[in-house]
Every structure is written in C-alpha cells, then in structure tokens.
Design a protein that fits this description.
With 237 residues, the protein is of the alpha/beta class. It has ten helices and eight strands. The chain folds into two domains: 146 residues, 3-Layer(aba) Sandwich (Rossmann fold), CATH 3.40.50; 72 residues, Winged helix-like DNA-binding domain superfamily/Winged helix DNA-binding domain (Arc Repressor Mutant, subunit A, Orthogonal Bundle). The longest helix has 20 residues.
C-alpha cells in the first residue's frame, strides 16, 4: 500500500514542527505539505490532493469549520482530523456532521495522536483491500473509533482555558531556570495574576516544580520550573 499523503494546517510554527515530527514517527504516512492559514491550505490541498488533512480550528484568516465546508463544497476527495483546543460542543457537532474522521483536543500526547493516525490507516487499508465489507468488518472498524473516544477530555477548572494554559507551558518549556509569576508574565505578555493561577494549577498537577525563595524582608516568592518528565510528554496546542 502506498503511504497516506497528509497535509498539516497549523498557524503556530512550534506546534507545526512538533506535529510534523509526530507524523514522521508513524509508519505508512507521508507529510506532503504544510500550510499556516486557510487560503494557503485550500490552494495546497487543491494542488496536491492529499488523502488526509490534520486541521487546526483557529487560523489567522478563517476557522477550521469554514475551511472544511469549503473542502466539502468543492468535493475534494480527502479526510480530515481536527487537532484543536476548541471544545465547544456545538462546533464539534458541526464538524462531525461535515465528516471529520476524528477530533483531538489540545493539548494532546503523542499516544492519542498515534492512535488516531493508526486507526485511520487501518480503515484505509481495509477499505482498499476489498470491494465489499462484512458486517463484522464494519463493526470492528467502528468499534476501534469508539474506543479512542471513550476517554473523557480533561476538564480545566472554571476560569482557565486550554489556549492560555498551553501558551504558558510552551514558554516554560523553553526556560531552564526557576521563574516567578512576574517573569512568566513578562515572557508571555499575560497578566501576572492570570499567570499565577495557571502556575498554581500546573503545580497541583505535578507539571511544574515549586521553589519558595525567602528574602530578608517582604513575602517569600514562589518560583516555578517545568518538570523534566513534563518536557518529555510533548503536549502541545
């Protein structure tokens, strides 16, 4: 069987790099192209006609739902897997109705990414190997997809959102020293009070180390650094 040719549509260069590396680790797939916005993506998809598109929802010039609608209206023969932080039930329903084969919430781990692509590869191999399916074949294929969706998505505490959380995680992953909430706020452009809430959440989850620095006067300062094990998990938005 020929490699499954896929295109990644993602506006964040760091996430694009990580997703590309993830694809390279899975047999049977060929990265045929990349695009960082909707207009470039549509032109690329039209020109090279890939088998699969890994599509982000939030794009600079459009959104993934609108792009998928355009793909369907042009009757382009391809499948789509969404990789996005958008957890809106309404949006998920709309996208599934347009025929997306999977929808993965960010941040995600490599294992979930690999499962999605391997199950898609199995589906393609089965559909290409026979002209007719038995009910048992279809039950198995549908059952595999259901299994991947049985694990409920991680729910963040009220007031926190995935986009900001991942912005802070990605910044911390580039740092080697302990940082205060003020340092992280300066590095991300976020408010210090906002950053502190996310750092406290990450600390309760074991994602960051906490070091309390006591000065001669004033209140102690909490300093944070990404746990080494968290760096290896490679969870990105």
């Amino acid at each position: 069987m020929k490699p499954i040719r896929l295109v990644i549509v993602e506006d964040d260069p760091m996430v694009m790099e990580v997703n590309s590396e993830f694809v390279s680790r899975i047999d049977g797939f060929e990265l045929a192209g990349k695009a960082c916005n909707g207009s470039d993506a549509l032109q690329l998809i039209t020109n090279i006609q890939p088998d699969l598109v890994l599509l982000d929802y939030f794009l600079p010039d459009t959104d993934g739902f609108s792009l998928l609608k355009e793909i369907r209206q042009q009757e382009l023969s391809l499948d789509v897997i969404f990789l996005t932080a958008n957890r809106s039930a309404e949006h998920v329903q709309q996208i599934l109705r347009l025929g997306a084969v999977d929808y993965i919430f960010k941040p995600f781990r490599f294992e979930r990414f690999r499962t999605a692509l391997e199950q898609y590869r199995t589906l393609v191999e089965k559909l290409n190997s026979t002209e007719q399916l038995e009910q048992s074949d279809l039950d198995l294929l549908i059952g595999m997809r259901r299994d991947s969706k049985n694990t409920p998505p991680k729910i963040l505490p009220k007031g926190l959102n995935d986009h900001t959380l991942q912005q802070i995680i990605q910044f911390l992953q580039t740092q080697t020293e302990f940082l205060s909430a003020e340092d992280v706020a300066a590095g991300t452009g976020l408010a210090r009070v906002t950053v502190r809430r996310y750092l406290e959440y990450l600390q309760t989850k074991g994602r960051v180390q906490l070091d309390i620095q006591y000065g001669s006067i004033g209140r102690p300062v909490n300093l944070y650094k990404m746990q080494t094990s968290s760096l290896n998990k490679q969870t990105f938005e």
